[in-house]
Design brief:
The complex is a heterodimer of chains A (526) and B (326). Chain A has 526 residues and is of the alpha/beta class. Chain A has two domains: 233 residues, P-loop containing nucleotide triphosphate hydrolases (Rossmann fold, 3-Layer(aba) Sandwich); 166 residues, Rossmann fold (3-Layer(aba) Sandwich). Chain A is 32% helix and 24% strand. Chain A contains 19 helices and 24 strands. The relative contact order of chain A is 0.10. With 326 residues, chain B is mostly helical. Chain B is 73% helix and 1% strand. A two-stranded antiparallel ribbon of chain B has the order 1-2. In chain B, a hairpin with a 3-residue loop joins β1 and β2. In chain B, α2 packs parallel to α13, α3 packs parallel to α8 and α12 packs parallel to α14. Chain B starts with a helix and ends in a 16-residue tail after the last helix. Classes of the chains: A alpha/beta (526), B mainly alpha (326).
Chain lengths: 526, 326
């Protein structure tokens, strides 16, 4: 990197969201004619970094230099103008418009004040050819294309903007192998044309093939930069490890391997291209974690159990018997007794303007009512129990739940489901954005519920939680279970390595040597 | 090259509306006592064109994934205003026309400003502004009355060369002058993009706000053109509340029949025009078959319900049930 003049430089960039720091004095240099890979686990700050670069998010502090002079971007359009174009993970295509409309959308060619369709067609065809996707018809509507084709259109759209810096954020995640090969050819050509490319991916083999330079992020900081190929996969995992441990977890029970029939079981669950042949079991009293990088099918798996997805193939078994769960209302019925603590409490968990009382009893109204009339006294008793059990801090039961702190809102969501005394509890990243104290209470609660016999399936993006809370962890990658970690095997190193789908020999033997079933009180010794 | 297939797919809604209209109009004229004569066509055209203008207005807003419940009231307000201003010498009449159209544009712009910059829901905003526009219309014409430049009115509601209804020619002119440029401009595309996926449009640096604002403002203008033609047909202005509401409701029916998606981002004003003409014809079928006119509102209501139900079919294909609520 010495010698080459950086085209773009970020210095001391910090960004906080509420109490969570996403970036902490991050630095990054980008040189023309090279492919720079960014690595890091969930929440390491990768996404925030590129959002800052692309003008989507304004940093709290720090500065950005383009060609040696300071720049600020007030919008994605401003960043585009400066030649920084980003291909986001969430597609930025407009579904009802045609491919060519989308490719020129930021700056359509004009003639007499109107869009010049001939020129637009020409630009689109050129860009598609350059992206190696000349087979896509420019007049096709984006919504009619399969995901992999859309991603190619996205790349063509970026190229049509004549970028100097092109950022690809997991841009190959939906592509077929043939498309990936094409795209790699395109990216290498762009590099030789002098573009600077930033490549974010969790696929280590892609990074090995493409990148010239790598930077590892951890806890919102860039912790290491090195020339690609100069470190082994194992060393890279080592760099990514080191999340600060700030939580205290309840001790895990020392138990013999589960002998009882599992309460919840999945056999060969598949759904569209998001879930791929997933089989798992959760026994009574067990906390089973779902790990892996964000967006590998964990959410969909929980939704599949809860009856939200249609067109699911495979089997779901409760107490060893196959069941068809057609809706959340059916999932929560006594025979199944399932509860899902959703990821976004503001939209899926709570009715914010309604009162704490109303929110608490929503999921239990059928049990609290006789002939459609709510038994107020019974409701009150149950609510009092829950408020005491979870120590919900609220100025009263009749204030809007939106007025509570994030942690207490989350407690309300959980209490609402606990009122039904569910046997199966699915948790979808329940501690996101809540304070440390509440998190610890939730860990205690989870263990307590398991001890009382609940089967718990727990998805978390925070590896620390998986290590501290779970008896077993299933690591998902591309919608499939890639690895199961049991007891002392659950270490940060193992979680990261399997989340990146790095196989085999470099796995540390520490966890295995101690035996799989007889787990020590503290699962992780990393 | 199979360009034509993509073109066909894009125009499917419009062609379908065109087909429905042709079938309905054939049934209508073949059962009409007078048959397919220039007179019948002229009357049908004059009635249909009014709704066509209002439906065009509705289309622009619906494309942005909004809805304009004030179009009928802008239509009334400009009718009442025209019955005061579009009169006198050529210059005075011209000034009146400009003032009426400017008023419509202003009404639309107010809707747009509130929805876009005030971030209020289109449905609530336009119910409220619609009530205001009706209130002003009532003050302008507490009782039906007024007059209009009859030379102009007769020229625009009569026939050209003895056969072609002038109102139809006027409609075509408006399509060429207002709709075509808008749909092919950057602003028009921004309106479509915002209606289809506002976030994707934002991430792509599309001028969403200006596109939506233009759509609302031009909707006001088109409703005013409708109001102007109402004045030409009736020679008077009248703040008839029920009539304003009916036009708003029918404009939604016409838009849906014309293949414009109420979810936004899809459809064209041409489709909505055929939707309007078809809807009018269907309503009038009752007359040629000698039904009691009392049945007409119920009949039209049922057609509207069927039309909006067709738009919900896409929901059956959703595989993640949470997407029902997006």
């Amino acid at each position: 990197m010495d010698g080459a003049i950086p085209l773009f430089r970020m210095e001391g960039i910090s960004k906080r969201y509420g109490g969570v720091r996403a970036l902490e004095k991050a630095e990054l240099s980008v040189t023309p004619g090279s492919i720079h890979a960014i690595l890091g686990e969930n929440g390491a700050g990768k996404s925030t970094l590129i959002k800052v670069m692309a003008g989507v998010v304004a940093p709290d502090e720090g500065r950005m230099m383009l060609d040696g002079s300071e720049v600020t971007f007030s919008s994605p359009a401003a960043a585009n103008q400066a030649g920084i174009v980003c291909i986001f993970q969430e597609l930025s295509l407009v579904p009802e418009l045609s491919v060519s409309d989308n490719i020129v959308i930021s700056d359509p060619p004009k003639r007499f004040g109107m869009i010049d369709r001939k020129a637009q067609r020409r630009i689109a065809e050129e860009a598609l050819a350059r992206a190696g996707a000349a087979d896509i018809h420019p007049l096709a509507l984006v919504k009619d294309l399969p995901l992999s084709r859309r991603q190619m259109v996205e790349i063509a759209k970026a190229l049509a903007r004549k970028p100097r810096i092109l950022i690809l954020d997991e841009a190959t995640s939906a592509l077929t192998a043939a498309d990936v090969a094409k795209i790699f050819g395109v990216l290498k050509r762009l590099r030789s044309e002098g573009l600077a490319l930033l490549y974010i991916s969790h696929r280590m083999n892609e990074i090995a093939e493409l990148a010239d330079q790598c930077t590892v992020f951890r806890n919102g900081r860039n912790v290491a930069s090195y020339a690609a190929g100069s470190k082994s996969d194992n060393e890279v995992v080592e760099l990514m490890i080191g999340r600060e441990y700030s939580h205290i977890f309840p001790p895990k029970p020392v138990r013999a391997p589960a002998t009882a029939a599992p309460v919840l079981e999945a056999r060969k669950l598949s759904w569209t291209d998001r879930l791929d042949n997933i089989s798992l079991t959760v026994g009574a009293g067990e906390v089973v974690g779902l790990g892996g990088l964000d967006g590998q099918g964990q959410r969909e798996l929980l939704l599949a159990f809860f009856g939200v997805l249609r067109g699911l193939s495979g089997q779901i078994l409760i107490d060893g018997k196959p069941v068809a769960i057609a809706s959340p209302a059916k999932a929560r019925r006594d025979r199944i007794g399932m509860a899902l603590i959703p990821e976004d409490r503001k939209t899926e968990g709570l009715m914010l303007p309604m009162t704490v009382r109303e929110n608490l009893s929503f999921a239990t109204l059928d049990r609290l009512s006789r002939a459609g009339i709510i038994d107020r006294a019974a409701e009150q008793r149950l609510i009092d129990d829950m408020v005491a059990l979870l120590a919900i801090k609220t100025a009263g039961l009749d204030i809007p739940v939106g007025a509570l702190s994030g942690g207490n809102q989350q407690k309300v969501v959980i209490a609402k489901w606990l009122m039904r005394q569910p046997r199966i509890i699915l948790l979808n990243d329940p501690t996101r954005g809540i304070d440390v104290g509440t998190k610890q209470e939730l860990y205690q609660l989870m263990r307590k519920l398991a001890d009382q016999g609940a089967a718990i399936l727990f998805y978390s993006t925070d590896y620390d939680e998986l290590i501290g809370c779970c008896d077993r962890v299933l690591v998902l990658y591309d919608g499939a279970v890639k690895r199961e970690l049991v007891g002392a095997e659950i270490t940060e190193r193992a979680l990261i390595a399997s989340a990146l789908n790095i196989h085999g020999e470099e796995m540390p033997a520490r966890g295995m040597a101690k035996g799989m079933a007889k787990t020590p009180a503290r699962g992780a010794d990393a | 090259m199979k360009d034509w297939r993509y073109w066909l797919a894009e125009q499917r809604g419009t062609l379908l509306a065109f087909g429905i209209f042709i079938v309905m109009f054939t049934i209508y004229t073949s059962n009409h006592p007078a048959g397919f004569t220039a007179n019948v066509v002229q009357t049908a055209s004059n009635k249909g064109v009014l709704l066509a203008f209002v439906a065009m207005a509705q289309t622009l807003v619906v494309i942005t994934a909004g809805i304009d419940l004030s179009v009928g009231m802008i239509f009334l307000l400009t009718n009442c205003l025209a019955s005061w201003l579009v009169i006198g010498t050529g210059i005075e009449t011209a000034f009146g026309v400009v003032a009426v159209l400017g008023t419509g544009l202003l009404c639309g712009a107010i809707n747009g400003a509130i929805v876009i910059y005030g971030r209020l829901q289109p449905i609530v905003t336009t119910i409220a502004t619609g009530a205001v526009y009706f209130g002003i219309a009532l003050l302008l014409r507490p009782f039906p009355g007024g007059s209009v430049n009859e030379d102009l009115a007769d020229a625009l509601t009569g026939r050209l060369f003895g056969v072609v209804p002038a109102s139809l020619v006027a409609l075509l002119a408006v399509v060429l002058v207002v709709w075509m440029p808008f749909s092919r401009s950057v602003l028009g595309r921004a309106a479509y993009a915002a209606g289809s996926s506002e976030m994707a449009a934002y991430m792509s640096g599309v001028p969403i706000r200006r596109g939506k604002f233009a759509a609302y403002a031009l909707a006001g203008l088109l409703a005013a053109i409708g109001g102007l033609f109402l004045t030409f047909f009736t020679y008077t202005g009248e703040a008839a509340y029920a009539s304003g509401n009916a036009y708003t409701l029918f404009s939604i029916a016409a838009v849906v029949l014309g293949g414009v998606s109420l979810f936004g981002g899809k459809g064209s004003a041409i489709g909505a025009i055929f939707g309007a003409l078809a809807f009018r014809t269907i309503g009038d079928l009752l007359f040629v078959f000698d039904f009691d006119p009392l049945w007409q509102p119920l009949f039209q209501g049922v057609i509207l319900l069927i039309a909006v139900s067709l738009g919900a079919f896409a929901l059956f294909r959703v595989r993640n049930r949470l997407e029902w609520f997006l």
